């Protein structure tokens, strides 16, 4: 009996090792999903269709037009902020600077920060903010544009809450999420941008995502 | 006999001095400890855990000379905020706005100033609630 138990233990240990070694770390695919059934060669197959971030049009701190095309082939992190935010934005961008410094020389990674107060945050204001924050080049864009489009994108696509509320300091309610998006425009992670530990995890996850070649991921 | 009295008085004096000192010490510790909490809740998001500020947007709290020179102004900064004026800290110009804390009690202001005044390389001693009240009278 004892011998038998020992054997099982050894087999289990082997199985665990094997499993681990075949399984490189992978990130889940998040957001809403749909099952689509179609007929291929006379057979019914069901496919999962993942939610993707739709096209948009904004202007960055240099005054250039930015659309989904500008992010083609890039992994990116999106967040929402405003330059006069007195509460969480300084923490978020202190943490985002770490991410920027880690990846600024990497060709397939970008950060996009959408202002939720486009009326105040003109292109000139955003440029000044970028300069003072100490960011240059094209790896971190501060995007400004239509307010409705920004709010819609945040709420319906990135699934983060944003709302104008004159009762809170600064006048806007929003959460400090960093949303990680892959090259297929699918959401792959949410991280609390005010938490250094979660941001460190995001940096690790970006590296995993960059190493991902086969994008067909078993769920 | 006389010697005994002198010795007694000397010992008493020592006891008084020591206990007074430790009372001041205790007050400092109380201020500093509570100030840590006020700082975390109201200032750390902008000025950072180590008082390092944020790039050229928010100044650090490490400019000991600036803080000493403007000691009497600090309570006003915390209570009424800073409008977009240019402040030079560690030789760099900052011009953002700092929000007001009009509802913050004078004791909390004294505590948080004692905290920043004795952290991040600063050494200003206790900034008492009496000093803060006097300084607040003179805010512009």
TrEMBL record, chain A:
Residues 47-211 form the Thioredoxin domain. InterPro entries: SCO1/SenC, Thioredoxin-like_sf, Thioredoxin_domain. It comes from the Bacteria. Pfam families: SCO1-SenC. The keyword Mitochondrion does not apply. The keyword Repressor does not apply. Keywords: Copper. Belongs to the SCO1/2 family. This is SCO family protein.
From TrEMBL, chain B:
It holds the Pfam family Cytochrome_CBB3. Residues 1-24 form the signal peptide. It comes from the Bacteria. Residues 30-120 form the Cytochrome c domain. Keywords: Heme, Iron, Metal-binding, Signal. Transmembrane segments: none annotated. InterPro entries: Cyt_c-like_dom, Cyt_c-like_dom_sf, Cytochrome_c-type_DH. PANTHER family: BLL4482 PROTEIN (PTHR35008:SF4), BLL4482 PROTEIN-RELATED (PTHR35008). This is Cytochrome c. It comes from Mucilaginibacter aquariorum. The lineage of its organism: Bacteria, Pseudomonadati, Bacteroidota, Sphingobacteriia, Sphingobacteriales.
């Amino acid at each position: 009996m004892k011998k038998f138990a020992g054997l099982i233990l050894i087999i289990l240990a082997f199985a665990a090792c094997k499993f681990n070694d075949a399984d490189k770390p992978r990130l889940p695919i998040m957001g809403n999903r749909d099952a689509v059934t179609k007929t291929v060669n006379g057979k019914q197959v069901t496919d999962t269709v993942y939610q993707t971030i739709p096209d948009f049009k904004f202007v960055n701190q240099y005054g250039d037009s930015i659309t989904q095309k500008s992010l083609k082939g890039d992994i990116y992190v999106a967040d929402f902020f405003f330059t006069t935010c007195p509460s969480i934005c300084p923490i978020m961008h202190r943490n985002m600077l770490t991410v920027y410094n880690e990846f600024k020389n990497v060709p397939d990674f970008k950060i996009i920060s959408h202002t939720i107060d486009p009326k105040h945050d003109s292109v000139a204001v955003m440029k000044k903010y970028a300069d003072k924050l100490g960011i240059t080049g094209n790896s971190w864009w501060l995007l400004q544009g239509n307010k409705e489009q920004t709010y819609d994108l945040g709420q319906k696509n990135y699934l983060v809450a944003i709302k104008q509320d004159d009762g809170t300091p600064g006048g806007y309610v929003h959460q400090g999420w960093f949303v990680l998006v892959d090259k297929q425009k699918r959401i792959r992670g949410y991280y609390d941008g005010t938490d250094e530990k979660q941001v460190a995890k995001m940096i690790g996850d970006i590296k995993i995502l960059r190493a991902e070649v086969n994008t067909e991921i078993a769920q | 006999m006389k010697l005994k009295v002198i010795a007694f008085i000397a010992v008493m004096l020592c006891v008084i001095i020591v206990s007074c000192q430790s009372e001041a010490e205790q007050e400092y510790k109380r201020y500093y400890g509570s100030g840590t909490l006020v700082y975390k809740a109201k200032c750390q998001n902008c000025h950072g855990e180590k008082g390092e500020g944020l790039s050229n947007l928010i100044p650090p709290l490490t400019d000991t000379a600036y803080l000493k020179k403007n000691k009497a102004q600090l309570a006003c900064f915390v209570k009424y905020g800073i409008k977009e004026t240019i402040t030079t800290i560690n030789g760099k110009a900052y011009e953002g706005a700092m929000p007001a804390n009009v509802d913050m009690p004078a004791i909390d202001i004294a505590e948080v100033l004692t905290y920043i005044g004795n952290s991040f390389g600063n050494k200003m001693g206790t900034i008492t609630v009496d000093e803060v009240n006097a300084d607040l009278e003179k805010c512009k």
